Amino acid sequence: MKITIGGVVEPGTTRANKTGGWRNFKPLYHKDKCIKCGLCSMLCPDSSVHEQEDKYVIFDFDFCKGCGICANECPKDAIEMVLEEK
Known about the structure:
Layout: H1 13-16, E1 25-29, H2 39-43, E2 49-51, E3 57-59, H3 69-73, E4 79-83
Antiparallel strand pairs: 1-4, 2-3
């Protein structure tokens, strides 16, 4: 989808346009440190952290922009931000 200056973006286009390519850093998850509190999932502004059935999380890197909120708020340092290798 091409967006022009002053263009109108239709609702729901974020799911269609994968925004993960914007990031410079990505979260590295240390499952062994995770206490399954769910803070990372609740606080992710891009809804790219998802709790699985066992309450551990997975990241949707198609939409994660690498903001680091998940890593910053994790009480057990189970998430660290690492430089994205492209």
